[in-house]
Amino acid sequence: MPNTARWAATITLTATAVCGPLTGSALAATHSPAALYAPSSLVLTTGHGEFAADSTPERAVTLSCAPTASGTHPAALSACIELRSTGGDFDALATRGDAMCTREYDPVVVTVDGVWQGKRVSYERTFSNECVKNSYGTAVFTF
Amino acid sequence: MPNTARWAATITLTATAVCGPLTGSALAATHSPAALYAPSSLVLTTGHGEFAADSTPERAVTLSCAPTASGTHPAALSACIELRSTGGDFDALATRGDAMCTREYDPVVVTVDGVWQGKRVSYERTFSNECVKNSYGTAVFTF
């Protein structure tokens, strides 16, 4: 086999090995009529404003925590660990002690919709500014 | 370098090359304060019952359609293409002509929450049975 062909084969095989198992397990889990675990799939949005109803979502990310952490959330694994530690209670996410934020009032509203461990979630929370939002928890609201 | 170390290095590099670009673009997109495109991130659930309020979500999948199709939805790409073709109108998803379903009444309710092209989505629809649900569109409700 010429060298380039061998490299192409290696890359394809490795991609399957690395990316494949995730897709495979997700498929198996979502397709089975009786899933082995309670689903945890969320959409988080953030936008400027006091209430979600009046604000346009500027960013929206997905977060799936079962069977594995995934989604477009930039820190999916940390976010899942944090949520598991509070039992899915978004109000219980503690603020970080080291965050230094100004008192500027430029409210941002975060929404969370979907399912956490089999229970429907519909959550909304307003922070006085972006910095304060990002200071809660270490990952969940930082997107 | 011993052979095993070289292989480990190859796998790591390849994994970064193959999986990295996706993560990178997702990060850039979700982190930038002014995203280059309107976000499209959804959570779809399905459960037995007539109304979402009375039913337990048995399955829940995420679907992200920008910048690329992703999520735990088993056919994310097809689902995104279908939704784009109806402009995000879930009621406009046509039923497949070739679906053969019984008239059995065992209702399943589907919910869709999140954001489609920058607009909030909160959708609920009841189908008379699982087969009828899966006959709508080719992918969106088939999870």
UniProtKB/TrEMBL annotation, chains A, B:
Assembly, per entry: Homodimer.
UniProt-listed HAMAP family: SSI
Cellular component GO terms, alphabetical: extracellular region
GO molecular-function term, one example from the UniProt record: serine-type endopeptidase inhibitor activity
Protein name as annotated: Probable subtilase-type protease inhibitor
Residue ranges of domain Subtilisin inhibitor in the record: 38-129
Cellular compartment(s): Secreted
